[in-house]
Amino acid sequence: MVVLPYTVAFLLLSFLQTVKIANSQSFIGINYGQVADNLPPPSSTAKLLQSTSIQMVRLYGSDPAIIKALANTGIGIVIGTANGDIPGLASDPNFAKSWINTNVLPFYPASNIILITVGNEVMTSNDQNLMNKLLPAMQNVQNALNDASLGGKIKVSTVHSMGVLKQSEPPSSGSFDPSYGDLMKGLLEFNSANGSPFAINPYPYFAYRSDTRPETLAFCLFQPNAGRMDGNTKIKYMNMFDAQVDAVYSALNSMGFKNVEIVVAETGWPYKGDDNEVGPSIENAKAYNGNLIAHLRSLVGTPLMPGESVDTYLFAFYDEDLIKPGPGSERSSGLFKTGVTMVYDVGLSTSSQAPAAAPQPSPAAATTTTTTTTTTITSNSNSSTSTSTSTSTGTGTSTSTSTNTVNISIGSSSGSGSKVYLIRIFNLGLLYGFMGLSLICLFFYDLQI
Question: Which of residues 364 and 133 earns the better pLDDT score?
């Protein structure tokens, strides 16, 4: 009985830590591109980041000024090698070692570098030379980290477009394009052996752009919709993000790599575009990003990966005015203005509440017709072109009673992420209840002695 007070104290501290972890938002990141001449200094960006709930930043390169500015903030940093560096990294282990010595060792661990991405969307670049050298480049970077005693502390991977999938509809039948064959298998074996993530760029925006029906927009924006049925699993999907991520999970599973972690390296919605573009608007961008954040915070997960949130990097921090030519939407996805104010509020500021998400209606229809649309798109601030496999599903009435409806919408149109706050209130209730129980135990312990 002598150890009782210490046991209670230990359990209380453990519970407090559990509550802290449950309320953290370490799964929300943002892409920080630099193809611009109008960006604020890195120090200003670092301060802005610390005023938000964003806990991870993805860089497309390895700018030392930004990496230094994020030192001692605890923010996870993803750095990347250029596609043009891949041949050198693949052919010369010393080049890989030099890259690590220059871009990692001077900053780590003060700057919390968590992942190195070797190239961006290489597998859909149609550059066979780069595709063949991607895995050797990753292996040499991994070996350089191992030599620096950083293997396992910093992961190595690459980033893929959704174009690596041959099929994505229904999500349970997701599969990789067989033309990538052994190359993809080798990359997945690397991910599995090194505990590194499979990074993917799903964009529901491009799915809507290829199917502009109102019900598709609602499905893409996490807004009230009839849902889309996966005939194999009898799961009704209520948003495109979950459908795309689960299609990737199914593709990994079909290759025998379901335990490889999925990371969403990019996803977002432009807030403006050219006059002939359908979809870009502040209203739609705020709905997508706000509802996605609420969905991630709910910890609901996806139907095939329930109870957890996939690490997700929003696109993007700022607009990049020097980004490659194309439609206006390519240069209009920033959540923050370069004057370090918000373009629109999605609840990322630590001084603001969580964003409102659309209410979930009672399912009144199930999927009856399914088509798959593939469209070539440009999805990030690099110069590569990616292919997004979108899901365009019609709906009709159904009398089936075996439907497994997955409800992922959080909050209400008049609330602000109410489910998130219910979780927090529940955690607080458990905390106070545990504290009360601890005091009672201590009281009876005192009586006994």
Answer: 133
Mapped onto helix, strand or coil, the DSSP state of residue 370 is strand
pLDDT at 340: 84
CB 288 within 8 A of CB 358: no
CA distance 327 to 220: 21
* Cα separation, 274 vs 330, whole angstroms: 10
Q: Which residues are catalytic?
A: 121, 266
Transcribe 157-216 into DSSP letters: EEEEEGGGEEE-SSGGG-EE-GGGHHHHHHHHHHHHHHT--EEEE--HHHHHHT---HHH
Whether 380 has a pLDDT exceeding 70, the answer reads: no
Given a contact cutoff of 8 angstroms between Cβ atoms, the answer to whether 289 and 346 are in contact is yes
Among the listed residues 303, 151, 288, 328, the one whose alpha carbon sits nearest the alpha carbon of residue 234: 303
Per-position b or e across 292-323, b if 16+ CB within 10 A of its CB:
bbbbbbbebbbbbbeeebbbbbbbbbbbbeeb
- Here the tokens at position 397 are 């009435």
Cα–Cα distance, 121 to 131 (Å, whole number): 10
Q: pLDDT at residue 281 above 70?
A: yes
Query: What's the CA gap between 151 and 257, in Å, rounded?
Result: 21
The pTM assigned to this predicted structure is 0.78
Is the CA virtual torsion 213, 215, 217, 219 positive or negative?
negative
Q: Are strands 165-167 and 175-176 parallel, antiparallel or unpaired?
A: antiparallel
Beta strands at 56-59 and 312-314: parallel, antiparallel or unpaired: unpaired
- Helices 93-103 and 128-147: crossing angle, nearest 10°? 60
Q: Which residue has the higher pLDDT, 430 or 208?
A: 208
Do the Cβ atoms of 56 and 75 come closer than 8 Å?
A: yes
pLDDT for residue 350: 85
Instruction: Give the mean pLDDT of 216-227.
Output: 98
Q: For residue 54, give the nearest of 333, 336, 428 by alpha carbon.
A: 336
